[in-house]
Amino acid sequence: MKIERIDIAKDFSDMPFGRNQNDGPDNGERFREEILYPKFISSDEVHVYMDGAMGYGSSFLDEAFAGLYRNHKISKSEIKRKLKLHCSLDFILKSAWLYVDEANLEN
Predict the structure, then answer these.
(1) 15: in domain
(2) Chain-centre distance of CA 57, in angstroms?
(3) Where is the DUF4325 domain (predicted)?
């Protein structure tokens, strides 16, 4: 079983923000495309550690995680099976999973 690990604050940015490049360089789309998606498709599990960053806006969380469904057509069940989110702030975890649950392909 191949397990990948991503520490957002160390491997990407301690100030992740925004949906796409229009919002700045450390956005959810860039995180998903450059870091998360390549590891997701090449492993059995991806553990994403979210502590250490200054915070997470809704647009970053939605684009980074729900974007796996919307942009790459990965089923929600596969996302939930392979993606393991870790954060000491429970509301961030709940928000990220809510965006995945509510994602539509039309968005």
Answers:
(1) yes
(2) 12
(3) 27-84
Query: DSSP string of 51-76?
Result: TTSS---HHHHIIIIIHHHHHH---H
Helix (H, G, I), strand (E, B) or coil at 42: coil
| Residue 27 covered by a domain | yes
**pLDDT tens-digit series, residues 38-96:** 999 999 999 999 999 999 999 999 999 999 999 999 999 999 999 999 999 999 999 99
Position 107 in a domain: no
Domains contained in the chain, number? 1
- How are strands ordered across the β-sheet holding 83-86? 3-7, 45-49, 83-86
Residue 92 inside a domain? The answer is yes
Residue 47's DSSP bridge partners are: 5, 84
